[in-house]
Design goal:
Helices cover 5% and strands 49% of the residues. It has 321 residues and is mainly beta. The protein has one domain. The protein has a 6-stranded antiparallel beta barrel with strand order 1-2-4-9-8-7. The longest helix has 9 residues. It is globular. It starts with 8 loop residues before the first strand and ends in a 5-residue tail after the last strand.
Length: 321
Amino acid sequence: MPGEAYKSWGSIVKESTYATAPASGQTYFEIVRDSIKYDPSWQKYPAVTGPGIRKKFLGYVRCAGPLIPMLMFEGAIGPFFEGVFGQVATTPDTNIYTHNFTVKDDLPSYNIEINRGDVPTDGKVFRYDGVMFDQYAFEWAGERQAQHTFTTVNKDRATNVDESGTQTYPGDYPLLFHHLATVTIAAETTLAAKVKAMSLFMNNNLQKDNYFNSRFKAKSKRDGDRTVNGTALFEFEDLNLMNKLVSGVEGTFTLKLTSDLDIPSSSPPTKFSLEFSGDASFISKADSDIADKSPIELPVSFELLGAAEITAQLINGEVSY
């Protein structure tokens, strides 16, 4: 029987030693899409005569790719975001915990397991060691659930390993990233009521270790500046963003999403929320088209200056990450 995708699941845990799987502490998550690939580069010997024409050797090994977990306000969102940003600090209140994710150059590494199918009968557990997050993409449109894509760079992969434990998930399923509460670009604060779609892209620019027979013996380092940019689609109602494109105005950036639900036992009642923010953003493209009889739309591209200053604030009922 083939493994069934609907029976699959994943887990993530922070490594204390690079590429060494911890024995416990896993946080489980559901999977939207798993496209992490293992790519060994087999090379032929360059000889054109003799025994060498029937030999090969292993060049570099690439283990990387995108992973889309089903993230909610609690659970695996903590380790995933800490992996992208680098560090997290938590401030407690009455059953309300504010987690501030900020940039750190020395990013942590993780161990991720993907159960493909129904282990141990029809599927296999794939364990990725030394996982680091090279890129992150946030995409939201309308009132649909937002999607989070993490592109990984990994040291190695092991297959058919033992399961780390029995998967568990948060008890409640708040609609995460369902409501777009606040959008500010270049200090323009009247955008939330006009936005139809929104995306945010973060690139840590991790080095790609392509040396022969190399499997990331050391943790990947950033080989360039972190870059943060995004796109948005607005209803065309005024010239504010187009004028800021022409003038080059810089200003604050915020993107805040909330849930329908309050954090259990929070005092005062407080809704789950996630907010990205940065001090300096500017419009890089903004123009509209007339193509049919539909309402006119305004697609916008933006970038963040001083991208190391971008932060994410998650408010939920988790004590710590």
